[in-house]
Input
Amino acid sequence: MLYAVKRLALGIFLIVSASAILLLADRGRAATAGRKVVRVAILQHANTPVLDEGIRGLVDALAARGFHDGDRIAFERFNAQGDMPTGIAIARQVTAGGYDLVITSSTPSMQAVANNNREGKVRHLFTLVADPFASGVGLDRTAPLKHPPHMVGQGSFPPVDKAFELARRMLPGLQRIGVAWNPAETNSLVFVKKAREVAAQMGLTLLEANADNTPAVTDAINSLIGRDAQALWVGGDNTVIAAIDSVIAIARRLGIPVFTILPGAPERGTLFDAGPDFYEVGRQGGFVAADVLEGADMTKIPIRDVLDVVPPYLSVNTTVLKGLKEAWRVPDDVLKAANIVVDDSGIRRKAAPATAKTSAGSQRPLTKKWRVAMIELNRILDVEEAESGVLDGLRESGLVEGRDFDHTIKDAQGDMATVSALVDAAVADRADMLITFSTPTLQAALQRAKRVPIIFNYVSDPIAAGAGVSASSHAPNVAGVYLMGAYDEMLTLLRTYLPRAHVLGTVYVPAEVNMVSQREAMASAARSAGMELRAIAANSTSEVGEAALALVASHVDAICQLPGNLTAAAFASIAQASQRARVPIFGFQTSAARGGAVAVIARDYYDSGREAARLAARVMRGESPAGMPFVGFAETKLIVNLTAARSMAIVSPAAVARADEVIGR
Output
């Protein structure tokens, strides 16, 4: 009897278990079936390598965020084939309703959709646009958050100046560059205006010819060559890009090189293509699209240029050199820097740099992918070094971008109000971590991101900034690296140049608490060294130059410029006052050495960035920032500018002998 009961109980248990499994499976299928699949229209103006690569990056980024075509998202693609009336007709169709999001690539597509969507019937995201602020669709360059509530996107203005400089390096005698462009394209006009400006600065003549449509491009190119153009430049003109093969064929036949700022097939016949990686530009747009589809408030997403987060791209085709009329040559350092080189052996692609070795434990993927927002007040050389250090440090810590984290870099371009807006936007975008560069960005983050981990860098005094009461007692969501100026070391160095120096001058900004605290620290060091420090305040860029003029008029023996954000951005005006009065400058920031300072003892911003990255990695792996003491970073590098020293008729052999870097040797 007992045996029979046990058999019966086992049978009932198996039946119940199987039923539960089937019920759960059916509920899972029902949940999947009930999940909304969002409809997204992608409007592409034409089939070009740039737009094709950008759209590929966009789709890949959406997939990385879980939006796979046919699963959570359904793409419908439209292509105007370079025809403006067709593009407008498509825009009317996709803005009539029925789509959760419309994504446009290129300026013409962006304008067509924006002009047909003024009532905001559908959300609109644009990407692969050179200068969205010049497109006439209601954007404000001075206010990145001021845009129609239903529209957001990103710009990506390729570096015209770098392309022209590279062409001049390849042919030092270059005088005339030709460009064909369609005046009906807003983006093309923006590029040509920039090219005119760059050409004037470099002493070049820019020859222009208009092409209203693709068939007219051939006549325009022949006209330019007939006017003795030594090279042809292709900017962001969709009409000309669509006819690029014809442009190259004509130029090759006549021995004229073609160069562009829009990378395409490296073997197509251009001498070089110098621009951004448009696949990565598209990826950045894809990440914003994912944010929008996940519910982000579009009104809190700023319009910005993404070239600061997109790697540059350079391809060089040395086989083109053989058929040119003039003696063009590709410098060795250019070949070394190129992503792709085409030569007689074929196409050679640069290998990705090897990452530093890490322990097996640190190589394991994180439990989630972190969204890291890096926020800068302004983008000067020192910040760029720190930024590079952070990114390298994350990789050295065993973190893999795309797997463990994605990052954006937001630059306030020196505007304090924009700093707050960028922090708000990062929080609205659900950033998992903020990495700040400068005291003002740290202060804004402290006030506006109290629940988000903050890792600071490029800060001199976090306590004065309000991050805590001591290095070990601070806000629970904050950790970071701080760097005070090496004042004692600087004053010792200064004596080797100016043994009789007694009165030093500096410009400081009262609104920057880091400069106020550092002014007191340097004044104390000066008193200990038997010197006097005179400090004059400045509250704006124009006042920095006026303060510098007042300093040299007060007969200081040297300017010993404190590290600061506003003074670094306006350092050229300090250097100008120094040159006029023949008063030497000494400083504490790498950028000052390249801007005219005789000598600089700078903290190693790159290595401090790497140290900040190690703290960030610890937080990503689960450690609380509350238990991490602030790290004081003391490593320095000495940079000597011999050109600046000679202009002041001073020299220090001892400084040169121990310098980490010598400029103008």
